[in-house]
Amino acid sequence: MALLEVSSLSVSYGRVAALTDVSLRVQEGEIVTVLGANGAGKSTLLKAILGAVPVKGGGITFADTDLTRAAPHKRMGAGLVLVPEGRRILISLTVEENLLLGAHMRRDTVAIRREMDAIYGRFSNLAERRHMLASCLSGGEQQMLAIGRAMMAKPRLMMLDEPSLGLSPLFVEKLFDLICELNRDGLSVLLVEQNTGKALKVAHAATVLELGRVTMDGDPKALAADPRLQDAYLGGAGGP
Amino acid sequence: EEDLVLGYMMAKSGPYVSLANTNEVAVDMAVEEINAKGGINGRKIKVVKFDTAGDPKQATTAVRSFAQDAGALAIIGPFSSSEVRTTFPVGEREGISQMSMASSAPGLTKGFTYGFRNTTDEGKVIDQVLASLKDKKLPMATGAAAYATDDVVSKSIGTGVVPKMFEKYAIPSKGAVDFQLAAFDLSPQVAQLKQMAPDVVGLGSPPEGAITIAKELKRQGVSTRLIGGTTIADPELPKRMDGAGEMLTIGTTFFPEVNDKTRAFAAEFAKRTKAAGLNRTDPNQMDASVYDIVYLYAEAMKRAGTTGDKAKLAAERSAVRDQVAKLKDVPALEGAISFADGDAVKPVYILEVKGGKWTLLDTRMPN
Amino acid sequence: MVAQQIVNGLMLGAIYMLVAVAFTLAIGVLNFLNFSLPGLFMAGGMLAFGLMKAGWPFLLAAAGALAAAAFISLLVERFAYRPMQGGDPEVPLVSSLGFLVLLENLMLVQFGSDQQAFPALLPDLNLRLGGLVIGYAQLASLLLSLGIVAALSFVLAKTSAGRRIRTVAESRETALLMGIDIARLVPQLFVASAALAALAGILFAVNYQQVSPFMGEGVGFKGVAAMIVGGMGSIWGAVLGGLLIGLAEVVSISFIGADVVNITVYGLLLLILIVRPQGLMGRAPSREKL
Amino acid sequence: MSTALEISALSKSFAGVQAIRDLSFTVPKGVSTALIGPNGAGKTTVFNMVSGVYGVDAGRIKVNGVDVTRMPSRRRIGTGVARSFQNVRLMPHLSVLENLLVGQHVRASSLAALLTPYRLIPNHRWKREARAALEESGLGRWADETVSALPYGVRKRIDLVRATLAGASLLMLDEPAAGLNPSETNALRDHLKALMAKGTTLLVVEHDMHFVESICQNVVVLNFGEKIAEGPLSRVRQDPKVREAYIGSDGEA
Amino acid sequence: MSGYLTGVLVVLAFNVMAAYAVYLPLAAGQLNLGIAGFMAIGAYGSAFLTNEYMWPMWAAIPAGALAAGLTGFLIGLPVLRTHGIYFAMATFALGQVISAVFLNLEVVGGAAGYPVTDYAGPNVVFAAAVGVVLLMLYISRTRFALELTAVKSDATVADLLGVPVRGMKVAAFALGAMVAGFGGALYAHHYNFVEAQHFNVLLSVFTVLYVLFGGTQTVWGPLVGAAFFTLVPELLRASDQWRYAVFAVFIIVFMALRPQGLVTAALFRLFRRRAPEASS
Ligand SMILES: Nc1ncnc2c1ncn2[C@@H]1O[C@H](COP(=O)(O)OP(=O)(O)OP(=O)(O)O)[C@@H](O)[C@H]1O
Ligand SMILES: Nc1ncnc2c1ncn2[C@@H]1O[C@H](COP(=O)(O)OP(=O)(O)OP(=O)(O)O)[C@@H](O)[C@H]1O
Ligand SMILES: [Mg+2]
Ligand SMILES: [Mg+2]
């Protein structure tokens, strides 16, 4: 049984269908990437898995539990976490409070402190600003904070919605290294990325969404070579 | 055969409910009594009612509606001074009389030929209270005033009536304190009164302020006589003061224990209010006043030979007005009532709180 | 006399302070200008009065009133707050005012518009120090208020629950994405702020031995003013604001007169806002960076 | 050659943190320039100072020859500089089209313009123009949507269109390609090239080096608020300091 | 028209004018809880002119409106330093101060109120209300209204786009004050009496209520809101003491069902979409 199993999921906003009949699975220890143009429904998919938008049909099973109707906090309790689109850091809290908020479901204070220090070690920009209000951070720093905050929840499956947005090339590399490293330590990842090339490189499986429907899925290597994908998402000839 | 229609502006909702929501019972009582005795000029009196909620805007709507739609000959009400201010001009334009049962701000009827009040000027009332204290040789060597600033009647009592009367009775004034109608904490004012230590405090306030100040006086251990006018007259006041306010002395225009007529009225009133499920069953001065207003209009209509004929409506309305203005010593529930410059002249009853109850100290006729 | 007036001002301030803190929870945290709070303040006093009239002992009546207020507040959450999410912040004002009007009129129907005498709990409730008169009830309510406020400010600033609350305050949507159980947290906050308002109402009734269906309006507005003077969202600001408004009121009554109370108290509020738009102890709201 | 933007000896610190230190560079007219650097280097801060969101601690800023250092922020767009935002800021109470109409303000700010009942006039010039701009960037179908429902990438592009509607000669774009997939980035590139052909000068903050390469003739590299390199990208990317601070080992992005 | 209907419609006309006085600044994000203060300025100002200086009404009423507008302009400058709920409270305080000042101003009667001699009949009031509505309809079709909404939505960005944010805010505030003053001036001359107690917080708050209840998204909201709040209590007249309780329940239920107010932009879109469907 897969860790996350999304079957025939449909979501709509009012009368607008955002997802139709989307199925997807993430095996324990896998990185799965979801690709698609603007408005394809990628963010909607992640939010639906977290339970932040109501689903109209289909099912979501996580770690052998049916979570289709569960509230987001229940799902996070089960080990899901989302690095949301647009970062959504809390500007009235300090950097450190934002990180601690990520761990709000945990009670193991000592481990929390230790992990927080590890995150500071990894993101030195954050360490320098730990007691400043998060509103002061630059765009990229906010992105780091959003990722760090998700790590603080110690999830089993981390969903990332365009995590490389606004990060410098050097840092994007570090980010993908980090994702692989966490993955090696047993974390499963569901990744939405516009940096299609890099995402396909690290992923074990990939799914392509178009106007809310799955149009392709399977092995990322094969997909990367698929001419249809080349045209649509890799900017024609070979991509970056 | 036409009925004789009277309009009646009630204040059954809004800020005056507690004072006004039993008025209707008194009006109905009077009308039933008159009709049971054959009505006026062979015709029955019919009352059309309109709840203004004490709101001046709704009150003007009521007057327009009585005058233009209901074919009323005269109007009972409105209740409050603010309403009077807006409805008297309308009544004047429409040519229909109004008679208020509660508004006691000074000078409200001035300039209106169709505006009447069955209330007594607070100046006259407090004059009688002091005269009574003097007669009974009660301590009144020094005085002070306490009043609500954001209420016309209260403020005019505190700043006009009380100082003038103190002067008339040669009582040196130690000063004045004021408060807002909605004030619940009168500790600073009472702390000031404590320093002044007057024998009498002239109070310009509705019952609520009187209760609050009496309680605070008791709390701070100040003993002085509070005196006031009709604004404080609430049959349940001693009960509501819960032990405070002994020696509170006021003048009012109605007291149920005066004679058989008033006692009978109070008994019947109690019966009816209880049946209607109302909170208060003791009549207050507005209940008595509104009861008398019906009789006063009835008397005026009788004298004017009013027929209720729709074709002669305008003429009959002004005839009623002319007769009301001329009424003299009409025997009524509240005593003998006359009209001078639109305002009723009637007896003043001096009441004192003793042992947690109103007791009649004196009955006087203003001159 | 001046000392007595200061004492009077502080005691009055203690009442405003609790109401201000209740408002701070509602606006500062839930971003909801909750006009039902003055109604809950009134309901606290009136229901305690009603229950005592029905023969309940004071403590039981007070508990009953608090429970009722908490329940009403849950209705407010359900019907005034929840449906309005995502709209402009001023919108829920309408239905919360609807609740105020409803509560007032229900009490009006039940008890009439008169001010009612709340029974004195002790024969003489006053501490007399030299010439000073201090009500025990007032003193107790001041201490109780301060204690509650201190506890609350600790929770908000230092605990995980506090961070969760502040997250909801900033953005409900983000809070949802962070896995905060809003469906539980928000009603809890409503209950807390209702309890504070109702408690203030009960203390008011005990202190001033009176209740009326309209007692909430004046105190409610002064409570909001106190919160704003102190700075929204700042608990200690609410304390400072409450005491300041209480003092300003008493001082202007005793030195100038009651006719100027509204001018001085609200003039002070206006002045403070113009000079310091975020209130005395409030932080300027953090803005999203461009 | 006249300059579109001239920045000299600019400094800015926040609560003790020096975000920009003695920074000088110029953007000549017609020479589109990129401002790059690691996260937190101060790129957005420069934009914020040019557009007047922040005051400067020291230094001068000239736009099209006009010293704007002390000019109130709202008047700066009138000197010919418009910008987009890193964290997209569309007005949630307005529809897409209305957002664009606000973008036209500089060109319609007289009292008469303000009081023209344009909504009563069918096909009013302003509406036509805004719609045309939307169609041009392929966003026509979103015109009457409320902005909060739009996908991120679409919002990003609307933000850009709004900035162009001011008719400014210098356009500052803060990470315009972030959140776009490669083919969408290509479309954006064509769009920007068309603007440049019409005479607009661009100042771009962007982390996608391919994109920068295809748009910008000149690059200014910031690190910790200081300029560490300047020149054509091909040369700058060989600079070891730039590699170490920004691009990383593989030299690609 | 029956006397009753005239009376009710006059009240409606005043409520409509007041509602639009609140609506305009609200469109720019200003929750003005002191609108009654500006009505008082218009009322007392114009009444003073007709009573003491024998000005004709047609001059005194606009003069009252201007006085209120000018006050709004002068006070708006400092008060608009505040935002959001702070602004609401500042205007609330302002309203309290203004009405307290009139309460103590003995030249206009102080607590006793101020009788007004000249009379403006119902038709004048109706015409004025229609005028105000037309003016607001016009404004809502201009760029001015658009930019007010922009300022409300995101003042920082509006500023960077060149919109004179402060000017817009002050203009909206002062215009709102002027409309309020206009309504107040007419009120004084229709009811022939003004008292400071009438212009209290509850008047301000209830006026805001009309607007929010009707909906702020379109220019029709205040009209519908004012109509609802004026007419429904009349319909409930029969239920006497329960009247306001029932009314409050109405408000709560309606708002729970239509949180953005009765009239919303979506409603209009729906109509627009339906209309062609129906005709085809
Ligand atoms: N709150 C909402 N209300 C209405 N429609 C919405 C809402 N959020 C998203 N949509 C619609 O759902 C569709 C999918 O949006 P979604 O944000 O999931 O796209 P996406 O794939 O994440 O795009 P991007 O790459 O730009 O982030 C879009 O057509 C969008 O307009
Ligand atoms: N208002 C502020 N208060 C305090 N510090 C600030 C403020 N604005 C920016 N900073 C700091 O200044 C530095 C530069 O920020 P800036 O946003 O300009 O970076 P950037 O180069 O745009 O980075 P990114 O690529 O991540 O967007 C950052 O370290 C940030 O924390
Ligand atoms: Mg997305
Ligand atoms: Mg940046």
Automatic annotation (TrEMBL), chain A:
InterPro entries, per the entry: AAA+_ATPase, ABC_transporter-like_ATP-bd, ABC_transporter-like_CS, BCAA_Transport_ATP-bd_LivF, P-loop_NTPase
Domain ABC transporter: 4-236
Domain of life where this protein originates: Bacteria
GO molecular function: ATP binding
Pfam families assigned to the protein according to its UniProt record, in alphabetical order: ABC_tran (PF00005)
Entry keyword set: Amino-acid transport, ATP-binding, Nucleotide-binding, Transport
Family: Belongs to the ABC transporter superfamily.
Protein name: ABC transporter ATP-binding protein
UniProtKB/TrEMBL annotation, chain C:
Membrane topology summary: Multi-pass membrane protein
Species name: Xanthobacter oligotrophicus
Highest taxon listed in the record's lineage: Bacteria
Organism ancestry: Bacteria, Pseudomonadati, Pseudomonadota, Alphaproteobacteria, Hyphomicrobiales
PANTHER family: BRANCHED-CHAIN AMINO ACID TRANSPORT SYSTEM PERMEASE PROTEIN LIVH (PTHR11795), HIGH-AFFINITY BRANCHED-CHAIN AMINO ACID TRANSPORT SYSTEM PERMEASE PROTEIN LIVH (PTHR11795:SF371)
Family per record: Belongs to the binding-protein-dependent transport system permease family. LivHM subfamily.
Keywords, in A-Z order: Amino-acid transport, Cell inner membrane, Cell membrane, Membrane, Transmembrane, Transmembrane helix, Transport
UniProt keyword annotation of Transport present: yes
InterPro entries listed in its UniProt record: ABC_transp_permease (IPR001851), BCAA_transport_permease (IPR052157)
Subcellular location: Cell membrane
Transmembrane residue ranges: 6-25, 58-81, 93-113, 133-157, 185-206, 226-248, 255-275
Membrane listed as a keyword: yes
This protein's name: Branched-chain amino acid ABC transporter permease
TrEMBL record, chain D:
Any one Gene Ontology molecular-function term assigned to this protein's record: ATP binding
Keyword list, A-Z: ATP-binding, Nucleotide-binding, Transport
UniProt xrefs under Pfam families: ABC_tran, BCA_ABC_TP_C
Lineage top rank: taxon: Bacteria
Domain ABC transporter: 5-249
PANTHER family cross-referenced by the UniProt entry: AMINO ACID ABC TRANSPORTER ATP-BINDING PROTEIN (PTHR45772:SF7), CONSERVED COMPONENT OF ABC TRANSPORTER FOR NATURAL AMINO ACIDS-RELATED (PTHR45772)
Record's protein name: ABC transporter ATP-binding protein
From TrEMBL, chain E:
UniProt keyword list: Cell membrane, Membrane, Transmembrane, Transmembrane helix
Record-annotated membrane-spanning stretches: 6-24, 31-49, 55-77, 84-107, 119-139, 170-188, 208-232, 244-271
Principal subcellular localization: membrane
Leader sequence segment: none
Membrane topology: Multi-pass membrane protein
Pfam families: BPD_transp_2 (PF02653)
InterPro entries for this protein: ABC_transp_permease, LivM-like
Coiled-coil region(s): none
Location(s), subcellular: Cell membrane
Protein name: Branched-chain amino acid ABC transporter permease
Phylogenetic lineage: Bacteria, Pseudomonadati, Pseudomonadota, Alphaproteobacteria, Hyphomicrobiales
